[in-house]
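QA checklist item 7 of 12: single-chain prediction sanity check.
[x] sequence parsed
[x] length recorded as 789
[x] structure emitted
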Amino acid sequence: MESAREIRGAGPPPDLELLVHGVGGTTPQEMLGDPRTVRVTGDETAGVHRRTDDADAETRPREDRESPVREAYVWSNLTSGNSSRALWLLLLPFMVANLVHWMRPAADRSERTVRGYGLLVRLVALSLTVTLIAGVCEVALDLVAWQCGGADACADAKSWLGFMAPGNHGWWSRPGRRLALAAVLPTALTGLLWYLSNRTWSAYESQAPLEHSVDESAPEAGNRPGLCLPGFWYGRRIVARLRAAHTAAGFLTIAAALTTAAATQDRRPGGSGLLDAAGWALLALLTAVAVAVVFVVCHRGRSESKVDNTLDRITITALPGTALGVLVLSSLYAGWSRPGWVSHGKLPGNQTFCVIAIGQGLLILAIAGCALALYRAAPAGRTPLYGLAGPAVATLACGLGAVLAGGVAQRIADWLDGGATPGMGGRPEVAPPVLLSWLATAIPVLLLALLVLVLVFTVRVWRVRKGLLPTIMDGYPGERPDGVRTRRIAGTIARAGVTDSAPWIVGPIALCTLLAGGLAVTGAWATGEVPGRAADGTPGPVDAAAQTCQAIGSWMMGLAFLMMVTWARRAYRSPSARRTIGILWDVGTFWPRAAHPFAPPCYAERAVPDLTWRMQTWTGTYGGRLVISGHSQGSVLAAAAVWQLDPRTRGQVALLTYGSPLERLYGRWFPAYFGPAPLLSLHGEVRCWRNLWRYTDPIGGPIRLPDGPGPQVDRGALKDPLAYGRTPEHPLPAPILGHSEYQADPLFDRERAGLLARLPEQSCSSPENAGQTTTPVRSAPADPPDRAG
């Protein structure tokens, strides 16, 4: 069979541009500018496409091209392709908690503090799972089975609960049996979360990365960026361990609710001594398994220096299996016949949410302590909130979890109590925990604080826009001024700058959330009453205001949950809405699931190996020069893929980024992985790198690396719009492009050609090497002398 060299002749191999799109996705036809495309490798989920005319470009003589052969890597289906993925919106708190793990400040010699930071984040993530399952238990066990099912008036009003009514004296009328039956709902949810986590791992994250050895004894091993480690994008072991632990925690939460309710009855005068002893034994067993769960979560159990295929099979099978066994025993224990046991008031153990909230607050404060220590050890000027961005986002994750759990409970309680505000009237026997009422009271205050921040930043944008107005015409000499056009350009630039001020929105809201949570816990724990309820039953002005806030907040909590469900349902049916949600996941699910296994899957664990394999095998087979060209989020994937290449292949690859959030978002919010030191390392390892950006772009920005010899990474800001008024080249008004259409700028082709020109010209691979796909034909110097910016 003829080799590629024999078909093409002895001429140089073709150049290749590998395009990687950004957030929101696109089609290969749009990326390549041709309606006729063909997929050359990959599948329906993610693949590499070419123009039909370029499908066999390597087997034809090299033509006099003005541009290289172009390939488009389309990965949008990893985040917004399947309609069922719209339901991932309900996992938003888990996704936010997983981000916190990667937001730690950079540190060179603080390994113990780094490990402590990760451990605390994993414990916060575990508490969110407990919060979710506890919220479902509150609805199913407390509100429905215990409170409504235990009252004849409420049960009779709901025909589907009639078989539980005590007045029927049926088999399911006993409180313990009602609780055991209701436990099926949270148990099924826990099982569903386990199934989805396992299935999404197999479908999206199980791709093997390109393996290469790492010398742990090398002097520079300790300063190696984490993204270059071969096992960074393969979290099979840690995801399996965390999945087992979180599944077990869900089962134990349900078991604790059942056991506590039954044990409280058995400890009362006249209770059965045998059942009381069984309850204590069951609580001891439950505690022992819970300690094992915490131990597994605390022990990270993952190596990134190699592709870790090890599975702790005893842990991932025995731990959830044991917890499920404890749940079965708890159901049998609770369902045992206890004459005289009636349900009244709230389910015993209704202080659970207070305990969870206190634990989350202490963990967040501990995370803040670790983050401050790491930041002070290696401060970076653009790290947001002085290194406290991680704790701030962790606070928001816990707040989101509380709103979801509380929103469900508030709406179900409102439905069951006849339409009155839960806990404030209607049927007094149907009311959610007091803490949820206090949290509902705080929500209007938080929204008011958010509104104040929005007004402050609106005024700031107006002032920046006003200051920019005299400078706009400097970029368009000789043009006739147009007030409307000038104001539009200045306003676009001013609004684009709000991205850099995001920390001063996140920080205050997180602080207000933490304070509101602390006040709610204090009020619920100290008084045990719904806020605004006067002792004598006649509310005064303060009580009336509190009741009003509680009523508004209650509705808002329920509305927030309903809006998320409605949005998820709409996205399930509408591809356009699904793409909108996909943009959220493009940013939030870039990182591996290192903290929460029930978060939406990490698409980069598929995309980065795809890109790495493609670059390594193409350069190894044909020996040509390659420029990987990434826009927006695609530039982050491109940089991560280049980091995974071996030094020989990097010598044949150039990196072109545009509209890139590498420094502006990732470098600031994830400084340990994209901060100044890692980006400077990437600059030194890749032969040439160029970054294009605009002042009007709200997402992309400069890389901001220090100046050095040779061309720099950042080019000066591109002009946007390309023309101020009508010109012979632009007879119609030129649009303000902002974050889009960088390739429409004439400078784009010139910068790409310059990158290819700085790559070494490679000779064609020999016939005996044409089929090899693991190493490039020629090795680049370990320290290229012509390392362009």
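[x] summary fact logged: The CA atoms of residues 431 and 724 lie 63 Å apart.
[ ] second reviewer sign-off
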